[in-house]
Sequence to fold (317 residues):
Amino acid sequence: MSDWQERITRETAPAIRAEHELRYRLVAPLARDSEMWTDLGCGNGLAAASAFGEHLPERCVLVDFEPEALSLAARTLTHAHADAIAADLSEAADLRRISDALADVDGHVLVSCFEVVEHLPSFLPLLEWSNALVRERSATVVLSVPNDAFWSIQNPHHQTSWGEGSFEELRQLLPGDHTLVRQVALSGSAMLDWDARAGAHEVVVPVGGEGTVATHFISAFGQRHRDLQKGAFVVQTDLCEQRRWERQRESDAAVAQAVAEAERAAVAAQDVTIAKQREELRIRTLQFDEWRAYIHELERELGRPLAGSPDARELER
Fold:
């Protein structure tokens, strides 16, 4: 599925894949030095696999709501000591199952939770669980939320919307000692030799300053929250995959629009039919009333009880 469905695939736009990978690069050094790495909302594991490369943590716990994504993540990360847990992170019982998986860990535990909070109907159980993990264990938690206020279009897959104000409210619920990071988007280009030999450029990227708009807000708290190593990550754009992603998005939007237009046309046609039937019923009701008045007039002239009256029903019996 594309990023609009909140699952990163190999066909997702390169810039968005790099954006997700950078978050895992942020925590990769901590994860490698930890006894256990736990990834909440792991998805299919593509971003983590790219960021960690061959240097995976010794043990890890992968958590996601969808069993299919969990299975793919385990295969993608090819980790011999990975536990997979299907869980709803808004449910206390499921969070306790994750705690049970961490029960035998003596050393440091790193918990990453990227682009998950906005999908939960309530993030308080997850936040309370994370705070307790930090208080009671040697643990560090790093989580991110998108800057939804930056976009003018509502994401239908987000249960909550985030911006500067809502993230500040989240920050108030964190332990007093924590680290906050803003993630921003980068754009660029490069020059190659005519034969396009593979190479590398060292790039100095000025970032920040007035007018900076964050794409995501990141918070870290726990034993090693100050050890986050900030940086940038730039990838060469695969124009074929980029175009395929754009065309797929355009196709999906066109299909959705066509379906919506067909449904609107069907509703409009149904409204016309209902209006026509309502008019026919009105005319027939008038005709029936006129016919009943005529019958009653004849019955009065003949001295018979009026049709439908108690006397007429008694006479019929």
